[in-house]
C-alpha cells in the first residue's frame, strides 16, 4: 500500500514538474490542471496516511492475552496527603516473611530499612540474626558464615535464577522489591492477582502445574493460590482473612517500592504551601508596583487657538 | 536616610520607626534577616508538621511504636 501510494505520488510530482516547465508558454488551462493534480495527490497521500495510522492504532481488549484489568481500589495511601498505614506495613511484612519469602526475594530492602517504619531496632536486630550470611574473606582468605546484621539485605530464597526455576517448574518467581512499580495497575493488580484465583472457565485448558488467574496476562500462572483465611496469625489481633492479608502485603510491597513516599508527600505539602504564599506575594507586589501606571490618565490639553 | 514623613499618618509613623530600628544599620538589618528567616522556618515546620501528624493520626510509626517497645 505504501509503495503504491509512493509511486502515484512520484508520478503526480513528475507530471507537475513537466507542466511547470511549460507553464510560462502555456495558457491558464495548464495551471488549472496543475492545481487539480496537486490536490488529487495530496488527497491520496492523506487517505493512505490515515488508513495506515488507523491500522496501526489497534483497540484491543483481549482479556485472555492481556489479563483482566484490575479494578481501582480506594487505597488510603494513594491520597495526596496520606501516609502509609504503618500497622498494615508491619502486618504485610509478616505475610511476606511467612508466605511470599518462601519463593520471592526482596533484594532492594535491607533489614535496617524496617527500623522506624514497621519494627523497632531491637526487633530488626533479632530478625536479622536469625539468618546466616556469607562474609569475608578473613585473615587467611576464607569466606565464613556469620549471623545477619541490620545492614544486610533480605535473604534470597534461592542461590540463583536457575535454582529458582528448577524449584518452581520452570517459572521464575520475580523479585518483589519494585513489583508495585513494575506492573501495570500497581497495587490494584497485585491485590487482584492475590485474591483472583479461581477455577478455569469452561473451555480453558490449563497445563499441569499452572493455575488459572484472570488477572495474569495469559491466564495461566505458575504461582498457586497461597493466601487462605488464617494462613498467618496477626499479633495485633486483626482477622487474617484472604483479602486482609492481600491488602496488607500489597501495602508492604507499595512501601518497599516507594519507601520515600511519606516524606515526599509531606515535603510536597510544605512546598505547595510556600509556593502559594509566594505567588500571592508576587501578585500583590506586581499590582502594587503597577498601580501608579495602571491608574494614570493621559490628558490631552489642546493649546488655545491662536488669534489672528 | 531616614524616612521623611510627608504627613503625620499612623502608617508613616510605623514606617519611620521600623526604618530607624531595622534598616538604618546594615549589621542590624542583616541580623534581622537571618534571625527572622530562621524563626520563620522553625515556625512553618512546626505548624506544618503538626497539621501533617493530625491528618495522619494513627497511621505513622510514631503512633504505633509504643505497642512494640518494651522499656
Automatic annotation (TrEMBL), chain A:
It catalyses: a quinol + 2 Fe(III)-[cytochrome c](out) = a quinone + 2 Fe(II)-[cytochrome c](out) + 2 H(+)(out). It is found in: Mitochondrion inner membrane. Belongs to the cytochrome c family. Heme c binds at residues 100, 103-104, 223. It comes from Mortierella polycephala. This is quinol--cytochrome-c reductase. InterPro entries: Cyt_c-like_dom, Cyt_c-like_dom_sf, Cyt_c1, Cyt_c1_TM_anchor_C. It is an enzyme of class 7 (translocase). SUPFAM superfamilies: Cytochrome c, Cytochrome c1 subunit of cytochrome bc1 complex (Ubiquinol-cytochrome c reductase), transmembrane anchor. One of its GO terms (molecular function) is quinol-cytochrome-c reductase activity.
UniProtKB/TrEMBL annotation, chain B:
One of its GO terms (biological process) is mitochondrial electron transport, ubiquinol to cytochrome c. The keyword Electron transport applies. It is a single-pass membrane protein. It is found in: Mitochondrion inner membrane. One of its GO terms (cellular component) is respiratory chain complex III. Keywords: Electron transport, Membrane, Mitochondrion, Mitochondrion inner membrane, Respiratory chain, Transmembrane, Transmembrane helix, Transport. Gene3D superfamilies: Cytochrome b-c1 complex subunit 9. Belongs to the UQCR10/QCR9 family. Component of the ubiquinol-cytochrome c oxidoreductase, a multisubunit transmembrane complex that is part of the mitochondrial electron transport chain which drives oxidative phosphorylation. The complex plays an important role in the uptake of multiple carbon sources present in different host niches. Component of the ubiquinol-cytochrome c oxidoreductase (cytochrome b-c1 complex, complex III, CIII), a multisubunit enzyme composed of 3 respiratory subunits cytochrome b, cytochrome c1 and Rieske protein, 2 core protein subunits, and additional low-molecular weight protein subunits. This is Complex III subunit 9. It comes from Mortierella polycephala. The lineage of its organism: Eukaryota, Fungi, Fungi incertae sedis, Mucoromycota, Mortierellomycotina.
Amino acid at each position: 500500500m505504501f509503495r503504491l501510494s509512493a509511486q502515484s505520488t512520484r508520478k503526480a510530482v513528475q507530471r507537475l514538474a513537466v507542466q511547470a516547465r511549460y507553464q510560462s508558454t502555456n495558457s491558464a488551462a495548464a495551471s488549472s490542471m496543475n492545481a487539480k493534480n496537486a490536490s488529487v495527490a495530496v488527497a491520496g497521500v492523506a487517505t493512505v496516511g490515515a488508513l495506515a495510522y488507523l491500522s496501526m492504532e489497534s483497540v484491543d481488549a483481549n482479556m485472555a492475552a492481556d489479563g483482566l484489568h484490575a479494578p481501582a481500589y480506594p487505597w488510603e495511601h494513594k491520597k495526596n496527603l496520606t501516609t502509609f498505614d504503618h500497622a498494615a506495613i508491619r502486618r504485610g511484612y509478616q505475610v511476606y516473611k511467612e508466605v511470599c519469602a518462601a519463593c520471592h526475594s526482596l533484594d532492594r530492602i535491607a533489614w535496617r530499612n524496617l527500623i522506624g517504619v514497621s519494627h523497632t531496632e531491637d526487633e530488626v536486630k533479632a530478625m536479622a540474626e536469625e539468618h546466616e550470611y556469607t562474609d569475608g574473606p578473613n585473615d587467611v582468605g576464607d569466606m565464613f558464615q556469620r549471623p545477619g546484621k541490620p545492614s544486610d539485605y533480605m535473604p534470597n530464597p534461592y542461590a540463583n535464577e536457575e535454582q529458582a526455576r528448577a524449584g518452581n517448574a520452570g517459572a521464575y518467581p520475580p523479585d518483589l522489591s519494585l513489583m508495585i512499580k513494575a506492573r501495570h495497575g500497581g497495587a490494584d493488580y497485585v491485590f487482584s492477582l492475590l485474591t483472583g484465583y479461581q477455577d478455569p472457565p469452561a473451555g480453558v485448558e490449563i497445563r499441569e502445574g499452572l493455575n488459572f488467574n484472570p488477572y495474569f496476562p495469559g491466564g495461566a500462572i505458575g504461582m498457586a493460590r497461597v493466601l487462605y483465611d488464617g494462613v498467618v496469625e496477626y499479633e495485633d489481633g486483626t482477622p487474617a482473612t484472604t483479602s486482609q492479608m492481600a491488602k496488607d502485603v500489597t501495602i508492604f510491597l507499595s512501601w518497599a517500592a516507594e519507601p520515600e513516599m511519606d516524606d515526599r508527600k509531606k515535603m510536597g505539602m510544605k512546598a505547595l504551601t510556600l509556593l502559594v504564599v509566594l505567588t500571592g506575594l508576587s501578585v500583590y507586589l506586581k499590582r502594587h508596583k503597577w498601580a501608579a501606571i495602571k491608574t494614570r490618565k493621559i490628558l490631552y490639553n489642546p493649546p488655545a487657538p491662536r488669534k489672528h | 536616610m531616614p524616612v521623611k514623613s510627608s504627613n503625620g499618618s499612623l502608617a508613616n509613623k510605623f514606617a519611620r520607626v521600623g526604618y530607624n530600628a531595622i534598616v538604618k544599620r546594615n549589621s542590624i538589618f542583616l541580623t534581622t534577616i537571618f534571625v527572622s528567616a530562621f524563626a520563620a522556618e522553625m515556625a512553618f515546620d512546626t505548624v506544618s508538621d503538626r497539621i501533617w501528624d493530625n491528618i495522619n493520626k494513627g497511621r505513622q510509626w510514631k503512633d504505633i511504636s509504643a505497642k512494640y517497645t518494651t522499656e
